[in-house]
């Protein structure tokens, strides 16, 4: 489809035992600065807010909040969750294993309509298949809460 970069189904596609394993691999790629956004500065797991829980929130060098919803299979649920995240995120993505991500191409219009991006991991690096639309969050105060969540020290740092 137009604008999509499709994964090749070969040894580059990793299988994940759990959603947490996918999140951990993504987190590792972000920590290693192997991301296409120019090096997201910092990130945190499980940002809880009234409408739900976001798997990963991250901060860009420009001070923008990114949200990522990870799913092993249920991309439709991830799409709904990612759309909810636009209330606080400047860009919102779903994260899927590449063998699943390559199949959602046929629903490109649904992602474009909502401004949601699709990304995956390939050879340990983040790959954007469909870029998210840059938006101004509807609830800037919630963006500030996400920033505070990203900035707070983890138990390991205390």
Q: What would your notes on this structure say?
A:
By secondary structure, this protein is of the alpha/beta class. The protein has a single domain, classed as 3-Layer(aba) Sandwich (Trna Endonuclease, Chain: A, domain 1), CATH 3.40.1350.60. Helices cover 29% and strands 25% of the residues. It has 5 helices and 6 strands; from the N terminus they run αβββαβααββα. The chain has helices at residues 19-31, 75-84, 98-101, 108-114, 140-151, and strands at 42-49, 52-59, 65-70, 91-95, 117-122, 125-130. The radius of gyration is 15 Å and the shape is globular. The mean pLDDT is 85.
Task: Set out the fold topology.
Blueprint: H1 19-31, E1 42-49, E2 52-59, E3 65-70, H2 75-84, E4 91-95, H3 98-101, H4 108-114, E5 117-122, E6 125-130, H5 140-151
Parallel strand pairs: 3-4, 4-5
Antiparallel strand pairs: 1-2, 2-3, 5-6
